Amino acid sequence: MERAWAIIGKITQWVAVIAVAFLGGWITGRIVGVSPIDVFITGVSNADARLLTPGDRRQQFAVFWDVWDLVEGNFYQPEAIDRQRMVYGAIRGMLATLDDPYTYFQEPEEAQQNRESMEGRFEGIGAYLRVENGQIIIDRPIRNSPAEQAGLQPGDIIVAVDDQPLAELIAGLSDSDASARAVSLIRGPAGTVVRLTIRRPADDRVFTVAITRAAIPLITVNSALLPDGIAYIQITEFKASTTELLDQAIAELRPQQPRAIVLDLRNNNGGFLNTAREVLGRFYDGVALYEEERGGVNKELRTIAAPADRRLYGIPMVVLVNGGSASAAEVVAGALRDERPNTTLLGEKTFGKGSVQNIYTLRDGSSVRITIARWITPEGEAINGVGITPEHVVPASNEADYAAPCVPDQPVENSCADAQLYWALKLLREGVAPPAITETVTAPEGGRTPGGGPRGKREEAADTLPRGAEIGEAEILTGREDMDGRHRMSNLSGSPPPTGTALV
Fold first, then answer.
1. What is the reported pLDDT for 115?
2. pLDDT band at 473 (very low <50, low <70, confident <90, very high)
3. CB atoms closer than 10 angstroms to residue 147
4. Can 300 be counted among the known catalytic residues?
5. How far apart are CA 365 and CA 469, in angstroms?
6. How, if at all, do strands 260-264 and 317-321 pair?
7. Among 262, 449, 467, 501, which residue has the fewest nearby CB atoms (within 10 Å)?
8. Is the pLDDT assigned to residue 454 strictly greater than 80?
9. Could you give the C-alpha distances from 380 to 35, 300, 430, 448, 455, in angstroms and in order?
10. Are 183 and 158 in contact, with CB atoms under 8 Å apart?
């Protein structure tokens, strides 16, 4: 018995020595740096996250978690590590490896802002802003908005919001993050007041203005009946509210019995794919486009029919396009050219975005846009990276020789001279085409499909979503509920996450 107690005593002594050595090593590690124990503890604390990794991918993700653990256990900085920023950064890095500028991630704040604006209405002061040289600048106020009524002008620099200096709040941020930060401060519920400190370079003065926020409708359709019975319809973007606005315009134009149409899609950088199909349904009934999806699936998408009293079928049409006509605007222009009789494209070569994205709203309100297809015109033309060259190439010009009627949403300058509108009207009125201009175009890979587009419609596999994700409302460019239950977008512009102007 005494021998047993002696053995137990010896074991206890050794355990104590090991514990003291272990503790001493840990304390020393904390003094001179980070010990392996820290890395071990961190790895244990991340065990739950590792278990959430699907079993068939754990081996691939092992290196990711190894690096994560090393960062948490070793990286030195005075402030605590921002784990959320690391996660978002990892997502962006993953998507960047796909080499697709239209597949990208948006954090919750920016995703929400885009969802609101793409619905065609938001709450704020009613202005577009841009980031330039680290400053937040008013690009232009929206007509009849609180911003315009408060006297804000293009070029005004926003120095502070509610006495918070913007320079400090956006220091070190990318242009897109700086823009999102400014938008979050300036937007707000209708009826509330925001105080903006403005520097106006033109007058070399600084002043403060209090603006009451309001619900701001985004007008994406402008229309007028021009002389000689020619209807002018401008669509600036394909938002959720665009079809309703177009129907209102057609309801006003139809009783005046227009004999021709000018459809202006210049600088329209895209929008909801389903809205584009609805717009097409106002001008003809037929194929809108084909989608080429993974696995070799070719899918026919048709126009979405309009009520009989909201149709403008048959009458001659000229569609105006330019290098700012992108994505959903190219869907519409290409389809009208291919499928609608008496329709001609005029202007300049379009941007050339021929892909389709789904937008998925994730569990924390962030979103990810993923390219799910390429689209081709009804006659089988692939335009991605190439664009659509109009039948009549007319460079933009506001020289006085090209006097044209002033149309809605156009500044009255140089008597509203507009070479492209001028020739569109001349073509419709007199049948006189503009002088021919040769424009070199490189054929897309595969070019046109011989004999037209793929006319067969195939079944499509059911969609699956990762746990915690849902297909949400589109933002800057998705569609409403599609035939197959997805939300589609034909992206806003030819660039990755919009970094031009933002709505406030």
1. 86
2. very low
3. 28
4. no
5. 9
6. parallel
7. 467
8. no
9. 63, 11, 32, 5, 10
10. no
In angstroms, rounded to a whole number, what is the distance separating the alpha carbons of residues 126 and 214? 8
Tens-place pLDDT, residues 275-309: 999 999 999 999 999 999 988 889 999 999 999 99
pLDDT digits (tens, 9 = 90+) for 326-379: 999 999 999 999 999 999 999 999 999 999 999 999 999 999 999 999 999 999
- Token digits of residue 295: 């696995």
**Cα(472)–Cα(491) distance, rounded to whole angstroms?**
15
Segment holding 393, helix H or strand E? strand 392-393
Q: Which of 146-160, 176-190, 345-359, 404-418 shows the lowest per-residue confidence on average (mean pLDDT)? A: 404-418
Q: What is the CA radius of gyration of the chain?
A: 29
Q: Give the DSSP H/E element, type plus range, for residue 357.
A: strand 355-361
Burial state string for 173-192 with b = 16 or more CB within 10 A and e = fewer than 16: eeebbbbbbbbbbbbbeeee
From 327, 367, 490, 493, active-site residue:
327
Residues in the chain: 504
Active site includes 72? no
pTM (two decimals): 0.75
Catalytic residue among 278, 339, 381, 475: 339
Task: For residue 299, indicate whether it is catalytic.
Answer: no
